[in-house]
Amino acid sequence: MSSEKQTIIILGAGPAGLMLAFKLLQRAELNIELIIIEKRNHPGGIAASFQQEGIWLDYGSHRLHPSTPEHILNDIKNIIGPSLLKRVRNGRIRLQGHYLKFPLQPLDCLVHLPVSFIFGIFRDILKKPFRPSGPALSFADQLLHGLGPTICEKFYFPYAKKLWGCPPDQIDVEQARKRVSAGTVSKIVKKMLSFLPGVNSSEANVFYYPEEGIGQISEKLAAKVTDMDGQIIYDTTVTGITMEKSRGFSISVKKHNDVHKQLKADFIFSTIPVTRIVSLLASKRSCPALTAAESLTHRNMVFFYLLMECDQWQVVDAHYFPETDYIFSRISEGKNYNGTLTPRGKTIICCEIPCQHDDEIWLADDEKLKRLVLADMKKGAIPAKNLVKVFSKRQTNVYPVYTIGYSKKLRVIEQYLSKIPTLISLGRQGLFTHDNIHHTMMMADRAAHCLGINGQWDVDKWEEFCNEFSNYVVVD
Ligand SMILES: Cc1cc2nc3c(=O)[nH]c(=O)nc-3n(C[C@H](O)[C@H](O)[C@H](O)COP(=O)(O)OP(=O)(O)OC[C@H]3O[C@@H](n4cnc5c(N)ncnc54)[C@H](O)[C@@H]3O)c2cc1C
């Protein structure tokens, strides 16, 4: 055990911050006091849940994917116990006026997609050898080369515009690598085949889901962290970080009741937006990292919920809407995720509406959102049933936007932060990525192994792990 007690402060009680706390507290050889600071009054971050009318709801569709590394999955299973359910996916995607099973299945596509669409894909395959093959600069270049115009123009390009709010030729090529796991037609077919029963033993078509919503993972982890003598301070926002002359940090925090406090830390792990951490640290307005941080952008999301008087609205768990004709990108029905039939006579669905900070959607009241959502549900042939109530929730920074040139700015920030070896930024927002829960938990697991017993940080090991993280591809 190290001689001097180290104070470790983790910013953010989402899946990454909590898993990191759990992993650090498990290391008996570390002599640490561990505090998590969370601005909300509950754990879970974007992957939190809440209950309404006796129904567990998430902030949009959330599942724990079967690609979760085994040791992380085992940790979650041990912490949650039998409440972690294994469920079969049952999604649909709206394309060209038709619903297809999602994840896509070959026969279903052949039967339901318009002949012109299928013909277009075959034409694109034949033309592929003649498409320009220079280095791709943008999301559009990369996908056009790999997939051809039919799939791009009817599916990926409108989806990109909807999700990230900018044209696909202004989105960095990295976005295609991180978000599109099947970037060629042959990869799409291979992926579709992997979802056929009996083809893939890794059970590609299942997911894990806790009885009380995805947030139950974080709730249970938070309880475990507290049991292990970690402290979680909720309702508290970090408002400033100063590096002390000798060593460590002084962190200014503000409670929601406006009480200000100073906390001392030897080591900080931050899972809050990396753009924010730079603005908390940078003392000079002229700091290049601050300029870079201020020019990186995120998308926001409005989660619009509809309470209906019926046991179940649809048998499908999630409907995906890549086309821009619909304001929502996805609709999910909470009861279909944990498979509960109770409470009887009511169900709630959640529409995910990506938007910009302060745009028309972000500022819209529930009446306006209701009009827009109901009209598009009707257009999609899935009207509401016995609607009794609507409500909305909002989250900022849900998707980082990778406009061309973003990586240069991110590098400026990374270089700035690398000069502060006792402050590590990680997690989905800390690394400015789109990653899944299991990815961010892996980051936490890896980070916990880089801290030495006297508080020294293994820079080389962390760099190696960061290279590993940069290869993560988002699972939808
Ligand atoms: C619509 C949507 C659907 C998704 N679906 C899935 C899915 O099906 N499966 C999957 O694996 N992943 C999914 N994800 C991704 C998943 O939500 C994230 O991977 C996960 O939440 C990231 O965890 P994190 O701890 O890194 O970050 P976060 O969850 O963002 O947690 C960061 C925490 O920091 C806190 N914080 C921020 N600023 C401050 C501050 N100044 N002071 C104190 N605290 C602060 C926040 O309140 C938050 O609790 C989805 C994401 C979205 C947006």
From TrEMBL:
Q: What is this protein called?
A: Protoporphyrinogen oxidase
User: Does the entry feature the keyword Transferase, yes or no?
Assistant: no
Q: Which GO terms describe its molecular function?
A: flavin adenine dinucleotide binding; oxidoreductase activity; UDP-galactopyranose mutase activity
Q: What class of enzyme is it?
A: isomerase
Signal peptide from the UniProt entry: none
**GO cellular component labels:** cytosol
Q: What is its EC number?
A: 5.4.99.9
**Lineage: superkingdom:** Bacteria
**In which organism is this protein found?**
Desulfocapsa sulfexigens (strain DSM 10523 / SB164P1)
In what residue span(s) does the Amine oxidase domain sit? 16-379
Specify whether Isomerase is a keyword of the entry. Answer: yes
Question: Which InterPro entries does UniProt cross-reference here?
Answer: Amino_oxidase, FAD/NAD-bd_sf
Q: Name any one Pfam family assigned in the record.
A: Amino_oxidase
Q: Tell me the keywords, alphabetical order.
A: Isomerase
PANTHER family to which the protein is assigned, alphabetical: UDP-GALACTOPYRANOSE MUTASE
